Amino acid sequence: MSIKTQIQSLRNELREHNYNYYVLDNPTIDDYEFDMKLKQLQELEAKHPEFYDPNSPTLRVGGQVTKNFETIVHEHRMYSLDNSYSKDDLLDWEKRIKKNIDGPVEFVCELKYDGASMSLTYEKGNLVRAVTRGDGTQGDDVTANVKTIKSVPLQLKGNYPEKFDIRGEIVLPFEGFNKMNEERLEAGEEPYRNPRNTASGSLKLQDSTEVAKRPLECLLYSMKGRNLGFNTQFEGLEHARQMGFKVPKAAKLAKSIDEVIEFVNYWDVHRHDLPYETDGVVIKVNNLQQQEELGYTAKAPRWAMAYKFKAEQVSTRLNEITYQVGRTGAITPVANLEPVELAGTTVKRASLHNADQIEKLDIREGDEVYVEKGGEIIPKIIAVDFSKRPSDSKPTQYITHCPECHTELTRQEGDAKHYCLNYNGCNPQIIGRIQHFISRKAMDIEGLGGETVALLVNEGLISNYSDLYALTKEDVLPLERMAEKSAENLITGIEASKQIPFERVLFALGIRYVGETVAKKLVKHYKNIDAIANASKEDLVSVDEIGERIAESVLEFFSSEINRGFIEKLKSYGLQLEISAEKLANQTDILKGQSIVVSGVFESVSRTELKKLIEDNGGKVSSSISSKTNYLVAGKNMGPSKRNKAELLKISILTESEFLDIIR
Ligand code: AMP
Ligand code: ZN
Description:
The chain is an alpha+beta fold.
């Protein structure tokens, strides 16, 4: 088999697996096999840049960075939709249609997905462009980002029109959204409010590698173009499905408005079982000829109508506003409600977000309030029923002092929330920080759980994480529900955590914005805790991927004598506060400041090992040759175009052994 055929057949195979997995939700090989094939293709492509294809499955992982999104005028305008809220509205709409159309009219009912609308352009079966809706006439070119969404086919299957646009919605399923938020919380960051804004925000990220990490999906619902080869919307959906698009199965043909209503009623209940948000139903005249006759108003098609589900809403009494203190000291006001049934669950509490929100809605204790479960996962208060406000009601005074430790609260410019800055004397912050310290991704202390931490703090046995290491079995035995065996496990678990590597210890310290990835970067660069503690701001921001915000937070943490005291204690207990000798032995600064491109196949090391060697020795691996490249490490079968470019730019080309000599 020629190399070209080999590459093409791998691409086809991987495309099919992507399709099975992401569009049909029905994978036919396991992840490992898939990764192996992908790796094989990556290697072949690296060796043979002459067979480059912008739509290769290897490009799904992102890599392209967009500084400014180019504005693109839509070939077919992206209209809005008119809204309806009742059966009467729909009957009125039908009447207007019947005035213009003779004979029977059929409808297609689809779910209205709540995400970011998108127009994809395909030519000769290849994705050429992805553009946001923008103002409907023109939007932003976000192709590089959309290519990383696995359910968007880069190349179509079967028969496809020469050129067409297809419209859809990019959504973030709840599951992925919740996972992203868990990770943000762990890094001490504010969680995202709702999946829709997060989905549209993702499309405007500059680094497509970041977009590739987000579990976005693209659901398609309509094609635009000439000679599409079908006569109805319903056939169009089926056609799109056959070309490999993810077209939701919920779409249904309805012969009358009554059947439309049936569809609406069904989904009003069952939408809560869907993996992503929907805010209504879209009803479209099925026949494309009839659609054309009906045409458009200035803003929306006359042949389509959105039916908005009523966000489920109830009114109940707000008994009390309380305030929670988080691990980072952030204050969240909470509405304690008279329990009430809403969308199948009993709601007792709702977040009030911050002081501005309370002021904006003029929410007061004793008010009758409307609670809604909309796009957001936590129910929210959307308004006050002022007609029921008690006559002696007084405006809410936002707290000025921490409800737990009575320290005066501060609110910095740009922050939505108030903070209690008494990090080391405020119980919920102390408990939260120790809970973070022992968590799975941090010190992973077996035999110790969040509840026990709270108990230990409240009993006065510990007041910071370093105290854990002074605990004895005798100390903890008297605790509630602490048996001999569990006490032993707890102490053994704490002891064992002394072996946890430095990067996880650094993450465990709970420095704001220092999540797992940042911790790794800092450890790699500074090698030990003292170097990090003594680094200046300029020095910190010079580290790859460390920005001002992180640098300031690190400085603040280490400027505290108390924190430095904890670190000294942790050191004395024997925790890993520097990179291990073994790791260090393999790390140097030889390649500091050097940008290196690797190409071809290697004999004594794999490509991945080679890249790791470069990074371990302080160099930066970059994927394409530019005037900034310092070296090109050339393996066997390197593509001629890379070599030409390197020669043209007078970049030193090293063989595998020349490179290895440098670092050894
Ligand atoms: P609106 O933004 O309320 O004017 O509604 C129009 C938007 O609904 C479109 O731009 C699409 O992004 C979105 N939408 C979601 N699902 C569908 C669907 N099945 N058919 C048409 N539009 C949809
Ligand atoms: Zn406090």
